[in-house]
Amino acid sequence: MELSALLASTIVLPSIPKVIALLLSELDRDQPDLSKVTQCISTDPALTTRLLQTANAPAFNLSGKVNSVTEAVAILGLSHIRSMVAEAATAASLRGVRGINLQQFWAYSLNVAKLARSFAGLTRQNQGAAFTCGLIHAIGELVMHVGMPEEVESLDKSIGPLDLKRAKAEYYRFGYCYAQVSAGYARQWLFPQPMVDALEHQYAPFENNVYEPLAGVIHLAAWRARAKKANLSERALAVSFPAEVGEVLDLDIDMVLQQDPFDWSGAS
Question: Which CATH number is 102-257 given?
Answer without folding.
Answer: 1.10.3210.10
